[in-house]
UniProtKB/TrEMBL annotation:
Binding site for sn-glycerol 3-phosphate: 113, 144, 146, 199, 252, 262-264
The protein's Enzyme Commission number: 1.1.1.94
Gene transcribed to yield this protein: gpsA
Domain Glycerol-3-phosphate dehydrogenase NAD-dependent C-terminal: 188-328
Protein name (Swiss-Prot/TrEMBL): Glycerol-3-phosphate dehydrogenase [NAD(P)+]
Keywords associated with the record: Cytoplasm, Lipid biosynthesis, Lipid metabolism, NAD, NADP, Nucleotide-binding, Oxidoreductase, Phospholipid biosynthesis, Phospholipid metabolism, Signal
GO biological process: one example: glycerol-3-phosphate biosynthetic process
Residues that span the membrane, as ranges: none
Catalysed reactions listed for this entry: sn-glycerol 3-phosphate + NADP(+) = dihydroxyacetone phosphate + NADPH + H(+); sn-glycerol 3-phosphate + NAD(+) = dihydroxyacetone phosphate + NADH + H(+)
Protein species of origin: Aerococcus agrisoli
Family, per entry: Belongs to the NAD-dependent glycerol-3-phosphate dehydrogenase family.
Binding residues for substrate: 113, 263-264
Role: Catalyzes the reduction of the glycolytic intermediate dihydroxyacetone phosphate (DHAP) to sn-glycerol 3-phosphate (G3P), the key precursor for phospholipid synthesis.
Length: 350
């Protein structure tokens, strides 16, 4: 494999794990953090003490807080920052490019999962918007069932690279694939991004059920009906419904909504046990994307006229302070419906 110059922006657990995959594949990787103290510590110790404390970083990862240095000569830029920081970081990258006189954009990819507050834009749309002064951006999303801790420990992982430019998707697939990290391509970037974002809402709910004392029956019902409403909104937004049966749909939903490794599941569990959203966010130490995504998805569903009762329930817990048992009762006593009421009409969408 030809060694490529790749910038990874964001030194959290996922950004670090992906940088490790790329470095182990022989690429020239520059891992950027905007915290100078974190960069200094990682350089000195060879570890990311806050996010992956037990793992030694490959020596061919260059760690820096200098964004221009991280971007220099990069053929691929991987944004792995929280959704709320995406536009700001992308704008900083644009400013570096404009100052350097860059006219040809490298491939842009992201491995984050969320919707922008207010605009409800997917992350690829944020990147396209920010970089529009330099022309049309080739954006790829890397998404699927993947705990950063397990990827960093070389556990078997299968994930999806999605985008409208097949050459760019193939590039991302090539640089990341190895014997423990398998990448499939998918042209349905809408479905892959929405699947990765919306499953965090259901993971919050799954954790909340456990925290409130409900069992496996409730969890199975939540995941199944949660997938139905994810698909419902996704198809309305232009996604292929089959995407939600794949890695970035049911695969990501299962891994995020059933595991203590998931910060969204853990946040939901704490909410189910009676902690406030503010307390959960203060104690988590990392961004819980599902909290903000639940608000954006609820607003988007209202705008599009899409029925998403589970998302609405989580929204009411987050924004209105309702208890988990209150919203569960409301969900269970809704009007009677047929299970395939929506799904039977999928054939009409092709």
């Amino acid at each position: 494999m030809t060694a490529r110059k790749i910038a990874v922006l964001g030194a959290g657990s996922w950004g670090t794990a992906l940088a490790m995959v790329l470095a182990e594949n022989g690429h020239d990787v520059r891992l950027w953090t905007h915290h100078q103290d974190q960069a200094d510590e990682m350089i000195a110790t060879g570890k990311n003490a806050r996010y992956l404390p037990d793992l030694q970083l490959p020596k061919n990862i260059s760690i820096t807080s200098d964004l221009a240095l991280a971007l220099e000569g990069a053929e691929l830029i991987n944004f792995v920052v929280p959704t709320k920081a995406m536009r700001q970081v992308a704008s900083q990258v644009l400013a570096v490019f404009q100052e350097a006189g860059v006219t040809n954009l490298p491939i842009l990819m992201h491995a984050s999962k969320g919707l922008e507050q207010g605009s409800h834009l997917r992350i690829s749309q944020i990147l396209e918007d920010v970089f529009s002064p330099l022309g049309e951006a080739k954006v790829v999303v890397l998404s699927g069932p993947s705990h950063a801790e397990e990827v960093a420990q070389h556990d078997i992982t299968a994930i999806t690279a999605a985008g409208t430019d097949q050459v760019a998707c193939d590039f991302v697939q090539e640089v990341f694939m190895n014997d423990y990290f398998r990448v499939y391509t998918n042209p349905d970037i809408i479905g892959v991004e929405l699947g990765g974002s919306l499953k965090n809402i259901i993971a919050l709910g799954a954790g909340a059920l456990v925290g409130a004392g409900f069992g496996d029956n409730a969890k199975a019902a939540l995941l199944t009906r949660g997938l139905a409403e994810i698909t419902r909104l996704g198809v309305t937004m232009g996604a292929n419904p089959l995407t939600f049966m794949g890695l970035s749909g049911v695969g990501d939903l299962v891994v995020t909504a059933t595991s203590v490794h998931s910060r969204n599941w853990r946040a939901g569990q704490q909410i189910g046990q009676g902690q406030s959203v503010e307390e959960v966010e203060a104690h988590m130490g990392m961004v819980v994307e599902g909290l903000a995504t639940a608000v954006s998805a609820y607003e988007l569903a209202q705008e599009k006229g899409v029925e998403m009762p589970i998302t609405q329930a989580i929204y009411l817990v987050i924004k209105e302070g309702l208890s988990i048992k209150e919203v569960v009762t409301a969900l269970m006593t809704r009007e009677r419906k047929g299970e395939l009421q929506f799904e039977d009409n999928l054939a009409d969408l092709f």
